[in-house]
Amino acid sequence: MSSDKPKNKQADEPPAAGKRKGLRALKLGSKRSAGEADTSTPATRREARKAEAAKAAAAKAQATRSAKATKTVKAEEPAKAAEPGEAKPSRPSRERKGRMISDDARKLATPLATAATESLKLGREMLVIPAQVFMAVAEFAGAWVLWVWRRIVSPAVLAVIALLRALLGLGQRYVTPARGVAVVAIFAAAALGASQWLDYRGVSVGTDAYSGSVGAVAPAPQIETQQAGEAHAWVIVPLALAAMLLVAIAMRKRAGLARLLIVIGVAVIAISLVVDMPKGLDEGEVAIAYAGAEARLLDGFWMQIVTASVLIACGALLPRYLRSKPAAAPLRVKARGEDGGLRKLAAGARGAAKRAAPGKRKVQGAGS
Hints:
disordered N terminus, mainly alpha, elongated, disordered C terminus
């Protein structure tokens, strides 16, 4: 009976207590084995350590497997719960979608960036090639223009400048107011003589039909013209020759003869106004034969008036300039140091005079 009681106690104990006792027995056994191992040789100790390390590695691998299994179960549970009711996706699904979108965006952006880079390179080449061509053409054109400037234009410009300087020098040496007025008077007398062969009047017919803008485009036809010399029997031609002769004599010998140019100019104007104008404005028989006839004074008449006025002005100015006789200003280039040498010579002469003056006074005093 006494032996049955402990058996009954063991049968009555709960399973948790049995597990605890089993764990204690294992611990005691491990301690005993450790004690035994301590008493054993070093080789047995090494084998025991290797066995313990293998057990620890196996336990660690088992723990990692169980942890991964729990994570996968937890991730699959919300997906299964969302299937029947089509609930909102969980965070992991959103993250996956975001990653998928970002991957798609990267895949799409990569070719776009490549295309943009290639297009920029192509545009750069499109700009660089014409620029290079332009620079080459500009370099060639610049070299050609520089050659033309150095070989042709620059020597021509220098020659023109030298010619102008020479003309300026001649003008400064030989051109005076009297000579200028004399040249103008000679040209005026020559123009006065040439005006006698120009038409000084003309008669037009049908002027009423050519009035307004039509007359500006197509003037009325002239059926009769007359030269200026025919109106006064070519009297002005000798007067023009006399004017040129008077200018030559006044420049050589007597300046007072230049005043006769005023008389010649007044005579020409009087002949033009008294003789030529009435004849020039008279239509004559043309007015009887044609309707709308009109007489006009032409260029020959007005040239007589202008040249005669110029002769009058020259006759008034030439005697005054000839009497004053201003010296011509020759073009003279001073040599370097010329003024300085003259000043030194003048200063030396003054110093010699001052030194000689006291000596003369002493000699005069001794003689007295």
